[in-house]
């Protein structure tokens, strides 16, 4: 910014870099505590491995990467909603339960959409390989 002190720029840069550290810690914490996220990590590894084995196109990689990113984002947001809900409503409350159910439903919707992407991208080459044998 014009007229900003050099120290102010350095401070903003340090805060931006630190925010990446917080984000990575959040993903790591979720991976340690959330079974569903570990399942998504395994599915991610399988999809990436299958993509390399089948030699999918750049467009197919883009679709697979987008599907993976959306599923991970939804799962992380679901984890955040659950944690916040537990914080503000440690005792059972119908609205807290609904919030958790809706957040879990969002994960289900994107996971099904990702499965469809996977079937469309990986299905035809896998079927062709089966027919050749």
UniProtKB/TrEMBL annotation:
A divalent metal cation binds at residues 34, 82. GO terms for molecular function: ATP binding; kinase activity; metal ion binding. ATP binds at residues 15, 34, 82, 91-93, 100-101. Substrate binds at residues 15, 75. It comes from the Bacteria. Its main location: membrane. The active site is at 75 (proton acceptor). It is a multi-pass membrane protein. GO terms for cellular component: plasma membrane. GO terms for biological process: phospholipid biosynthetic process. Mn(2+), Zn(2+), Cd(2+) and Co(2+) support activity to lesser extents. PANTHER family: DIACYLGLYCEROL KINASE. Belongs to the bacterial diacylglycerol kinase family. This is Undecaprenol kinase. The lineage of its organism: Bacteria, Pseudomonadati, Bacteroidota, Cytophagia, Cytophagales.
């Amino acid at each position: 910014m014009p007229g900003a002190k050099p120290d102010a720029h350095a401070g903003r840069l340090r805060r931006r870099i630190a925010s990446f550290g917080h984000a990575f810690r959040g993903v790591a914490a979720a991976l340690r505590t959330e079974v569903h996220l570990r399942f998504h990590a395994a599915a991610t590894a399988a999809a990436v491995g299958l993509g390399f084995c089948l030699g999918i196109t750049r467009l197919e990689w883009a679709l697979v990467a987008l599907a993976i990113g959306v599923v991970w984002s939804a799962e992380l947001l679901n984890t955040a909603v659950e944690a916040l809900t537990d914080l503000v409503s440690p005792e059972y409350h119908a609205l807290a339960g609904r919030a958790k159910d809706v957040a879990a439903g969002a994960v289900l919707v994107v996971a099904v959409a990702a499965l469809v992407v996977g079937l469309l991208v990986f299905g035809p080459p896998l079927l062709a390989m089966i027919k050749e044998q």
